[in-house]
Queue: 2 jobs
Job 1
Amino acid sequence: MCFKNLPVEFDDQGKPFLREGIRDPYGAGAATPTGGSRQLTAERVAELVRRNGHDGTVRPMDFDPVTRVAGALAFHTVADFPNRKIVEARSVATLFRGYEVIMVGRDPRDAIYITSRACGVCGGVHSTCSALAIEMAIKCVPPPLGVIIRNLALALEFLYDHPLHLHLLAGPDYSAAIVEATNPSLFERAKKTEARYTEIHGYRTVADLMIDLNPLTGKLYLEALHMTRVAREAYVLICGKYPHPQTIVPGGMSSTINLTVMNEMMVRLGQFFDYSKKIALIWDDITEFFYEANPEYRKVGSRRATMIDTGIFDHPDAYDATYENSDDWGNRRWATPGAIVDGKLVTTDLRTINIGIEEFVDHSYYAEWTGDGQKQHYPTDPSGNPLSPYHPWNKVTRPRPEGQNWKEKYTWDTTPRWDRNAMEAGCYARLWNTAVAKKMPESPYMESTGHSLKMRVPAGALPETELEWHVPADWNAFERNRGRAYCMAFTTLIAFENWRAAMEIIKTGDTRTSTKFDMPTRGEQRGVGFWGAGRGYLTHHLTIDRGAVANYQIVTPSTWNASPTDRWDQPGPYEEAVLNTPLLEETNDPTKFRGLDVLRAIRSFDPCMPCTTHIQSEAGLITREVNTCACALDE
Amino acid sequence: MTASPARVIVGGVGYPDLCDYSIGIEIQERLSAWDAPPTVSVEDLSYNPIAVCQRLDDEAPGERFTRMVIVSAVCRGTRPAGTVHCYRWDRQLPSNDEIQDAVTDAVTGIIALENTLVIIGYFGALPAETIVVEIEPEAHEFGGALSDAVRQVFDPVCERMKEFATDDESVARLPIEPLTFSVPPGMRVL
């Protein structure tokens, strides 16, 4: 059975229906999630601090702002230092996004340009997601080359994004500069530990590797800056500019594609063959070193492997832009869609994924939209499958920053849940789905084995190398980073396959990249873009009424990951990962803790708060980091 | 007027469609129509500061820019709107932690004058002379309109930018100052 919590079952033909006899099937009590961890109540935490706070051993440890993440994130914890654990974790998105409000009443095509601004790292993924939602609503299918070039654009964005995160944002947490300061004995051990993959990455010891992870001066840090340029240059060949593309349209791409463009792209893409081998094996070495040095590191950022992804990289023979066929074309994507609960892949069907999504605002600065006599706008999806009143197609964004305390509301992020589970999003979710589902298109470079993903990366200066990412036994901060590192190779190979497919299409003379369309001016249409960011899952749910946007709802990876505790006291993914994180720094003095392991846990998700929340306040337009006065919340 | 330096890059930093905060871009666009000497290049410098750094670094050794003249809205909040302040940056960099923050900001989408300067300074792509032209903004809403105070200084600032690009003596008269407009802790509001 796919859904364990929602009262949704499937008939003999596999069509979902609501279980009969439940008066309020989507009410809080009718479908109560079980199995996940629970956050202590604010009262219980206050009591713990009161009882143990006299000597400062149980006390708040706040990160405001969390640095080396994209955008504005604050994190409140209460640490129990004698027991080296966190007893309360609250994720605070400090800014309001508001694109849902900005989009209402506009021409749907504006969404491609406006929602791109949701992120300064990966704006193009929002543009494409908008285009997909519009295509579905207006029934417009891109030509094969349009689909392929869109895939290439996405892959190139990831090849910008992954090195950036691994070596500019998360990497410094594992660098000599930081490890030597917080865990000197660990660094001494690293000096004596031989790296396993010296022949590929060139580092003799783990300490050598850590030195080159040093921020600003380390070779890996500087190399990542360079590689972001290589990816950016390839991207602008087909998208005009980065990070906000100018060539994405409903029905494909407006770029002109010819052999010169493709050759210039290959010059750059080829540089990722060797780089991706090196990155995967560097993160293998880092991960295994920490595990062997202290098995407690397996608990840093750990949580149950419960994650979601809508899949990406459409196959041009399958994608028809319809909701009705989305299970079919979704399952033929190079990266397979999927919902994983407690390590088990429970579905790969996009419609099943879609109908299981709900978005709550109990601890968020928004007002409920389901009450006040308002009837649910859409009881079903376009295929007649049941939808929750909390589903994005039914959601209404009503900002209301009131009740600011841990018991009531403390974030601008909402609380998406799937089958009422706190799902995690990340590029590793697509790796996991693809490895387990065995549904990816046949490929000379990749093989989904059911428990791993084999990747044969072509020769560059380094020889052809087979990498294999295995579904991990533990799910934690290290595995997120390792998964992201392997995603470099995965993405590179998908880009290479799509590059080759594009060349084959160009050979036939069919260089069309877009399909003409007319925008409807009457009636109501619905669409959803099922796509992905470098950080994972991305959906745009769109409703058009007489040619204008009636509702627009964006759910990003960080909307899932940064979500607050829900109405059932299930913590959001960042919160849960931090609650499970032991404090492993080599000091017993609470005043000297830097919270490194907490930060490793948070940063391993690759937080992107601009996507989660954004830039408007009554004081003006905020374009830089913000910290919040969290004292107002300590009530 | 004295001889102009070997190579000069002139540009602006800002956000489009943000009223006074777009002044850097708008001045750069105006100056693009200037029939500048061949040693002067007017360019958009309002994009990812790492990419700006890489672009400057691309110049062949011996042909690199020797002077940069850069304009932006800078809100100090302690002077009247429309105040223009010009100086030669003393090239003093902040701490490594702050530089790291500047890189993080840059790669995650922040475009601002101080992180542009700090990044190109840190990574060694900064021209020997860097002339900063600050304009105190007033209006910060979405839109294209400048406030009266800022509109009044638009043309004079364009002329001064040209002067700094071509006249060594004008530049020599400018004070040498640090970047002192870092925003205090709390909200950074543009």
Note: Confidence is low (pLDDT under 50) at residues 613-635 of chain A.
Job 2
Amino acid sequence: MSARPSPATAPTEALRAAPSIPQWARDLRMGAKFAVTGGREGWVRLLLTAVGVGLGVALLLLTTAIPSALAVRHQRDQDRQDYTYGPQRPKAANTLVIGDADTSYHGKDVRGRLVEPEGPRAPIAPGLTGYPAPGDMVVSPALKELLDSGDGRLLRERLPYRIVGTIGESGLIGSHELAYYAGAKNLAPRINGWQTARITEFGPQQPARAESPDPVLLLLVLVVFVVLLMPVAVFIAAAVRFGGERRDRRLAALRLVGSDSHMTRRIAAGEALAGSLVGLVFGTVFFLLGRQLAGSVEVMDVSVFPSYLNPAPALAALVAVAVPAAAVLVTLFALRGVVIEPLGVVRTARPRRRRLWWRLLLPLGGLAMLAPMIGQGRTNGSFNEYLVIGGVLLLLVGVTALLPWVVESVVARLGNGGVAWQLAVRRLQLSSGSAARMVNGIAVAVAGAIAMQMLLAGVQDDYTKSTGQDTERVQMQVSLPRGVPLIPAAEKFTTTRGVRKVTALGTAELADRTWQRGKEPNAATQLTVGTCASLREVARLPSCRDGDVFVSTGGDTDGDAVKLARPGRVLHLDTSNGPDAGRDAVWTVPARLKQARTITGPIGDTSGGLLLTPAAADAQVNRTLSGSVYLGVDDSVPDAHEYVRNTAAAVDPLANAALWASTERSTQFTSIRTGLFVGAVCVLALIGASLLVSQLEQLRERRRLLSALVAFGTRRRTLSLSVLWQTAIPIALGLLLSSAVGLTLGVVLLKMVGATVSVDWPSVLSMTGVGAGVVLAVTLLSLPPLLRLMRPEGLRTE
Amino acid sequence: MSIGHTLLGLLESGPRHGYDLKRAFDEKFGHDRPLHYGQVYSTMSRLLKNGLVVVDGIEAGDGPERKRYAITEAGVTDVERWLATPEKPEPYLQSTLYTKLVLALLTHRDAADILDTQRAEHLRNMRVLTDRKRKGDLADQLICDHALFHLEADLRWLELTAARLDRLREAVTR
Amino acid sequence: MTAPPGSLLAAHGLRKTYGPTTALDGAEFSIHPGEVVAVMGPSGSGKSTLLHCLAGIVTPDSGSITYDGRELTTMSDAERSALRRSEFGFVFQFGQLVPELTCVENVALPLRLNGTARKEAERAALAWMERLEVDDLARKRPGEVSGGQGQRVAVARALVTNPRLLFADEPTGALDSLNGERVMELLTDAARSANAAVVLVTHEARVAAYSDREIVVRDGKSRDMERLV
């Protein structure tokens, strides 16, 4: 009988060899049908997959929308620009005088403008329909809300204008931006070429020239995208495998009724496809929800309007095609190690120990791709984008390849401990692969984020200038517009709550010739006016009485002080800006000059020149002074900074109060770092959610066992702890590995841009901290269901 | 199966003629083997002699079928004791048990009690057999197992019957 | 009502409802030290609920349960858990062995829950496995042993703490008759030699025949068959 070939097998073999496209379609369709008709269990599985894929898709869409959002923001910002550095122009029917009255409140920036239209055709700022009358203001919705609330009490005092309207969306760069335009009178004399100006239009003076992209910046952007999208991909891969074991059992049943193994695989792929298609729909919904939500949140002073977040159509289409395709591929790949037999599922992969060598090849390959670019930096031309992306990808994929091996080999060696520990370790030993798979996403996200933060922190040094400010002596500085009487203003600060010390100095430039356009003076020096006490902050004075005049020397910028300070000599004050613009103002060097020695002043510089006590300064001098009040502030007084700002605003609306910091960060990098951190946290939260889902699924499957364990007196604490260990061990290993890979990648990237290599521990700690937080959150959230499952009702089955 | 106890039980619901007794017996328990008149007479005379029944009255005419019997106090007690005593667990006793059940239902006694009593007796027997089996050799084990499986079958029948007692009551008292 | 004199565990007037279903409706129970009592009854009669109440896993809605002179129903969950850990043992039909622990680790688990050191616990576990003739399976995982072997491992685990009371819920329910009887023989022998009382819930008469006494539960009411004979 066996000699005769069975006629039935021959055509089957032929079919198997080359499944036709209709057959593929039929099997995929069948799988999709199973996914939706699988009863409650099937629905739950479909839903889990769809939510997972949906979250991933939403994140992808959001990521693709970020460039456009930033572009729109940038455009809005450009459109409302008031260019104050232009040439002075005469008052006309189409001019507007605008003054920059920015302030900040409780750490948030407030964009403020004083406006005075000078004719019927004065340019209208974006988002406005007209200008408020003097004493009135139009505000952004967020500012209105703040001023109306109790939190805004101090700001209300600072902005004593009547609110007559709100600024439209086109005039704002974010839903939470604080901004106002206040009507003002008599602004024209305040025109100074930088803070206040007469303008005829809003917007960039010349079409903003696209800056040739800084290769380092480009590198940063490329890596940020790879770093954020990799974990999403890992996450989607994990999501289509939700409930895989139950699916395998169903497939075994299919084999029993006669489908061959290839068909079974295609049917499984069809199930995944259905899940990911529903996931696409979910993702779109999540994205739209997230977009609305994005309008209501503010992250580190950056908020956007939902309308900004429009993914580029091409990228959105790519997502729509790539995600389902990836789902099918991942499923086929996952089933590679599984033999589905009619009577059950046999896992062929389990007995084989994981091998290290090919897993190591991936990160090493990544390093090899990046290595040639080491030292190219900003000076030696640009980086090869493909090598950068490829290298970073390989390194990060290397994490996902290495982690299962690490988890397996570490867990196999984990030994004694309490019962909770034993339960967790044994469970991990039995299924280290699935544990590692769940953690992969977190590991990749953390590795990428650490590397990025390191790179940014390193590069930031190049973009960070030391301001030289000495925050021990002075904590705040108020710059007074030219012409504001210095001494009365200083008085007001003395009585302001929270102020310890007031140093008021007014400065002007003195030269040997008139300050006329085109004719630069030959010699110039600085003139500083202040009380004896204030002057002692910039120079060592032998003795001081009001009326004294000093020549201070010995500093870096003495200028031509000694040359110019000859008794009786007539010197010219710089009047190229300000109320006396263009008029010549002179000051005669008095007969009696005292000598003084320059010391390091409050701004950290040592500048000498002529020092005048108030009585020595005549009205001419006072009119040209630019005053600065340096304040020592008692930070323990609540809202001390706000009181100072309020006093500044009361002295003059255009007075600018600034908080001192010892360094000034390049804001560009601060926002990238913040964005990266926020993105990484979001990705981690997403992965935490999927961890939770699979944790709960696992707990449900073990309901009977849990009840039995409770029956013989297992403490809840023991089981809860074992759940904690079960999550914590793989995540701890994942964080270790990802820290190592992240630091390596960070070092390589830093070397690539030629920056000093230093480990940015705060970011390593904060990223691993967030990872650890995810473990804790997952454990805590799975405790209530665990305790519920541990109730004896679980025994009451069958 | 005790015909005497059965007939006594049938009399509990009220005095009957001998002929009525036979008909009632045949209808409820006879099935394929109706009672002979002779069996009725001889049984009744034995019961009469033992004081479990009395002659309630004689109708005109001759012959034992004219006698009307009634149960005595002693007769009721006798039925009671019989119903409460479990049968020795042995094969094919369901006909006796069935008779007892029907009689109990007819006389409004607790039929479930009869089943439970029998069940307890069966299980006691099974315990003895199980014990012997544990201590005995293979031959003992095989013999005991045979008996155990039969007893188990009976026990299953008892359980099933207990679950269907309400339906049986309906059928019998209709 | 006080517990019958000399009883180890006694319950009186137990009532328990799960939503609309009444699982127990005034059930009674008592067991003496070293006694094996079978609890029988049709499925859904409440026999498992009775076992859960007696073992302090479930608190009855009303009624009293005294174990060794102590009232179980007023104990806190922690106290009852401690009691179950130290004084009671459990064998269920299935799903009770932790699949990722080896057999000997499973048997040692109750001892370890009581704080015994791992080595010592596993030594004791191995001794019990020897008595139940499954010591050769010590290093295997539950998934690699047969149903009968698994149940014997479970019995070893139930007895490893030397409990005074063993609760067995359909311990042979998933086994064929030969394996089932072997498990019952070993279980009752081991329990008797350790002087542990056994509450044996079963619907099989031949399993119940290993007991000293039988209780039948019907519609949430219990019936002590001993008093009928």
Note: Strands of chain B lie at 16-17, 53-58, 67-71.
